[in-house]
Amino acid sequence: MTTAEPTASIAQGATTRDLTADPARFAREILDPIRAVVGERGVITDRAAMQPMMVAWRDNWNGRVPLVVMPATTEQMAAVVAICARTNTPIVPQGGNTGLTGAGQPHGDDSEIVVSTRRMNRIREIDLANDTITVDAGVVLQVIQETARANGRLFPLSLGAEGSCQIGGNLSTNAGGVQALRYGTARALVAGLEVVLPDGQIWDGLRGLRKDNAGYDLKQIFIGAEGTLGIITAATLKLLPLPKASATAFLATPSPATAVSWLRRAKSSLGDSITTVELMERRCLDVAIKHNASIRDPLPTRHDWYLLVEVADQSTHDALEAHLLSALEAGLDGGELVDGTVASSAEQAAALWRIREGTPEGQRLEGASYKHDVSVPISKVAQFIEEANGALETRFPGLRSFAFGHLGDGNIHYNPLQAEGGDGSVWQSYLPEVNQIVHDIVAKLGGSITAEHGIGRLRIGEVERYKSDVEMMMMRKLKNCFDPYNIMNPGKLLTRARLSPGTAG
């Protein structure tokens, strides 16, 4: 890779060359060559037109760049990246801009350009004999789900933003979602990738194989890398049989510990038919109901904790529902459950899911909250919630517990709320201390401070506290191998990412 003498990187906290400091040079070396590759439809330079791509969906990040580029093909993407490599121009890859940690957000100093995959939206091939679908990185997740379903197959990755997130971003963050218990995270659903490397070369790994033991599994390097090692431009994804029946239940349980006990029982009786087991505490229902008039409490009596359970398989609906009811009755007899209801129609099932989907929005409207996307072994979920609640209540009296998430894979969204009626700005100032208290407990229990949302900008200052020196060294060496001048998404995932060529890390 040939490049000009590199400037210091954003990730090092140093000043990076302002791309707009010399407009004539910027136009001559970057804008005009890129426009020649992608055409007028592929560039945006108007600040107002770029603004929706500069603003984070949830947090307060607001970027500023001189240029957004939207290649339409892999070849165009490769040519654009090659221009950026020659001119040492930092790139922020962006998909649907629905991430929750700022990985797709540019910084606010005109020091980068955004390269969007939104025009790369083709379904390239469906191979039903191989049970795979090959798609461009910019294809919206819901489109992939619907295309699979129309062909009698299931693509099981499912999350709240599926109507707008793009598959390239899902893979770059290794998205999890509500069905990871049964089907795994995005990483488990990929058969092959196509990637543009930081020097503009194209790696075509769209092989669609279930078995390939000829060396390193290179696709896994780019999944979860948050665009720091290259830009995913296409993926060959695994399809599964479309379930013939499903059933949904809403269950009340005394505590997280009893919820874990029932899950263990349910796995024995329901097996692989369990797709989702979501845990919610009572306050989650309260704020969802408070801020959404269409949500109703499905049970006649208030309880402390709840489970939203979905099962699906190839049997009949009656048989599947009977098995679910049997697991419910066994939980009631064993004291792990205290009440429950099974949806009798698709409409009732959708109403139960609205509770879970309305929880994050209700939380947002309650004032300052401390968002933690953490995972611990399933056996440690109850201990984590108990210890975190106790530590925070001692340090910050009045802080309200607020926990929900994917019990089936140990991923809890632990998002305590400010004291009711308190000053939100004051409570927000406690964020660093709250984060450390929570994450120290997670680390003690052998967990991760980010289960499915990634590091991005949100956790970049914390990751080194919870990873070993050896692990950080390996990650930095990998980054330096692929991107020694740190033009790929600088200031995300890794601090001090750029090394001089040839250094060992």
UniProtKB/TrEMBL annotation:
It comes from Methylobacterium oryzihabitans. Keywords: FAD, Flavoprotein. GO terms for biological process: respiratory electron transport chain. PANTHER family: BLL6224 PROTEIN, D-2-HYDROXYGLUTARATE DEHYDROGENASE, MITOCHONDRIAL. The lineage of its organism: Bacteria, Pseudomonadati, Pseudomonadota, Alphaproteobacteria, Hyphomicrobiales. The keyword Lipid biosynthesis does not apply. Residues 61-242 form the FAD-binding PCMH-type domain. GO terms for molecular function: catalytic activity; FAD binding. This is FAD-binding oxidoreductase. Belongs to the FAD-binding oxidoreductase/transferase type 4 family. InterPro entries: FAD-bd_oxidored_4_C, FAD-bd_PCMH, FAD-bd_PCMH-like_sf, FAD-bd_PCMH_sub1, FAD-bd_PCMH_sub2, FAD-linked_Oxase-like_C, FAD-oxidored/transferase_4, Oxid_FAD_bind_N. Its cofactor is FAD.
